[in-house]
């Protein structure tokens, strides 16, 4: 069994690139959540996303061997629908760390507010 809580592990270049890919997708989700774009921007952006999906699709594998959630040392285990977290300490029973919920994750992001959200 792999101890996923241990920090400071060596991560291969392949795993590191996958982690950076996951971070880039999180950044895209946060950006898309906070924009209002005209059709002349939305359409080429959509087409680019469809092209990127086509680039990755040939590498689809079964859930049992997918990289997401199986690479120790990558914050959030490269789970792109979860916020990136950083842990300071851990043992077999607990994990202490910090998670920041950005605009993509907050339910209040669609409603105008005059007060800064509390974190």
Walk me through the structure.
This protein is α+β, with helices and mostly antiparallel strands and 119 residues long. The protein has one domain. It contains 2 helices and 2 strands. It has helices at 13-33, 39-56; strands at residues 85-90, 95-99. It has a two-stranded antiparallel sheet with strand order 1-2. A hairpin with a 4-residue loop joins strand 1 (85-90) and strand 2. It is flat, with a radius of gyration of 17 Å. The termini are far apart. 5% of the residues are buried.
CA gyration radius, whole angstroms? 17 Å
| Cα distance spanning the termini | 35 Å
What structural class is derived from the secondary structure elements? alpha+beta
The count of β-strands is 2
| Shape annotation | flat
When the domains are counted, the total is: 1
Fraction of residues in β-strands? 5-15%
* Helix-strand pattern: HHEE
Task: Write out the strand line-up for the largest beta sheet, numbering strands in chain order.
Answer: 1-2
Which parts are unreliable, with pLDDT below 50 for 5 consecutive residues or more?
Answer: 1-9, 112-117
- Main sheet makeup: 2 strands, antiparallel
Helix content: 25-40%
Mean pLDDT: 76
Summarize the structure.
The protein is α+β, with helices and mostly antiparallel strands and 119 residues long. The protein contains two helices and two strands. Helix content is 33%, strand content 9%.
């Amino acid at each position: 069994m792999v101890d996923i809580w241990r920090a400071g592990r060596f991560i291969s270049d392949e795993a590191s690139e996958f982690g950076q890919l996951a971070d880039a997708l999180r950044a895209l989700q946060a950006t898309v959540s906070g924009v209002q774009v005209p059709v002349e921007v939305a359409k080429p952006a959509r087409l680019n996303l469809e092209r990127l999906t086509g680039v990755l699709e040939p590498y689809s594998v079964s859930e049992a061997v997918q990289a997401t959630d199986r690479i120790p040392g990558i914050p959030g285990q490269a789970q792109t629908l979860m916020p990136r977290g950083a842990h300071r300490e851990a043992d077999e029973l607990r994990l202490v760390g910090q998670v920041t919920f950005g605009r993509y994750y907050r339910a209040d992001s669609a409603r105008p507010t005059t007060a800064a959200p509390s974190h």
